[in-house]
Amino acid sequence: DAKTTQPTSMDCAEGRAANLPCNHSTISGNEYVYWYRQIHSQGPQYIIHGLKNNETNEMASLIITEDRKSSTLILPHATLRDTAVYYCIVHGSSNTGKLIFGQGTTLQVKP
Amino acid sequence: DGGITQSPKYLFRKEGQNVTLSCEQNLNHDAMYWYRQDPGQGLRLIYYSQIVNDFQKGDIAEGYSVSREKKESFPLTVTSAQKNPTAFYLCASSGLDRALGYTFGSGTRLTVV
């Protein structure tokens, strides 16, 4: 599985958009980009995933660059409840199924 | 509602004792996983199972054992051979189409006293 690089921490003002970057320069053609978040002492929660097209759901938007070497998760109107560790993971749908977690980005949403 | 249930939420164990963590899912997922998380760290894979009666070691399997006798259940035993068992343990599951994402349980916090 390809590895990802994320900033260790980020701050965002409540009500503003939070843009969380992720580099995955060694991603393979059949690997998806997944985003999960983990609120303190809870299990990770799936947010969104994509292959090469941009994706949007009720939680967030995912922007993937044309070369697929990086992506950005966008929380359009961050709230205090969005404070969490955000993990960017690349993973193929046909391999053994192991999700490899990095350190993630700790997003602190401030009032 | 479908989901994954981990129990107990908090568990205390004396040194030298084995302890079993429960993980049950009603999502009809084929694959199940156990992860360990230490403070301030990401998740590390202990064991995973893609089908009933079959499982594979992850990156940190030493001192742990699992079984997969039923599709719905994937219990993890932390044995006395695990030298540093105090951690947060997370169970997850996924369907055959992993592009749909993984579902995680709420975790068990194990403390050795």
What would you note in describing this structure?
By secondary structure, chain A is an all-beta fold. Chain A has strands at residues 9-13, 18-23, 31-38, 45-50, 55-56, 61-64, 70-75, 84-92, 105-110. Chain A starts with 8 loop residues before the first strand and ends with a strand. In chain B, 0% of the residues lie in helices and 50% in strands. In chain B, 39% of the residues are buried. The model of chain B has no long low-confidence stretch (mean pLDDT 91). The chains are: A mainly beta (111), B mainly beta (113). Chain A binds chain B through residues 32, 34, 36, 41-46, 49, 51, 87, 91-93, 96-104, and chain B through 4, 6, 31, 33, 35, 41-45, 48, 50, 56, 58, 88, 90, 92, 94, 97-99, 101-107, 109.
Secondary structure topology:
The complex is a heterodimer of chains A (111) and B (113).
Chain A: E1 9-13, E2 18-23, E3 31-38, E4 45-50, E5 55-56, E6 61-64, E7 70-75, E8 84-92, E9 105-110
Parallel strand pairs in A: 1-9
Antiparallel strand pairs in A: 2-7, 3-4, 3-8, 5-6, 6-7, 8-9
Chain B: E1 4-7, E2 10-13, E3 19-25, E4 31-37, E5 43-51, E6 54-57, E7 64-66, E8 76-78, E9 87-94, E10 103-104, E11 108-112
Parallel strand pairs in B: 2-11
Antiparallel strand pairs in B: 1-3, 3-8, 4-5, 4-9, 5-6, 7-8, 9-10, 9-11
Strand content of chain B: over 45%
Q: What portion of residues of chain B is helical?
A: under 10%
Shape of chain B: globular
Report mean pLDDT of chain A, rounded to a whole number. 91
- Listing every helix as H and every strand as E from the N terminus to the C terminus, the arrangement of chain B reads EEEEEEEEEEE
Radius of gyration of chain A: 13 Å
Number of helices of chain B: 0
* Strand line-up in the sheet with most strands of chain A: 1-9-8-3-4
What structural class do you assign from the helix and strand content of chain B? mainly beta
Helix content of chain A: under 10%
How many angstroms separate the termini of chain A? Answer: 38 Å
